[in-house]
Amino acid sequence: MALPAALSYSSARTYLECPLRWKFLYVDDLKEAPKGYFSFGRTVHSVLEELVRPLVVPTARRIGGGALQKTLDEWPGRGPPTAPGRLLEAEELLGLYERSWVSEGYNSPEEEARYKSLGREILVAYREDLLKSPPYPVAVEEHLEAKWEGIPIHGYIDRIDRTPGGSLEIVDYKTSRELSREDALDSDQLSLYQVLVERNYAEPVDRLTLYHLRSLTPHSAPRRDAESLNDVHNRFGRAYDGIRSSAYEPTPGRHCSRCEFRSLCPEFRLVPAGEQDRLLDLVDRFHRLRLEEERVDRELRAAAEALHEESERLGVHRIPGSDRVAIRRREELWHYREGTVAEILAEHGLEGRVRADDDEAVRRLAQDRKTDPALRARLASAGGRQVRWYWTLEEPSSRG
Ligand code: SF4
Question: Which domains does the chain have, with CATH numbers?
Answer without folding.
Answer: 9-244 (3.90.320), 317-398 (no CATH)
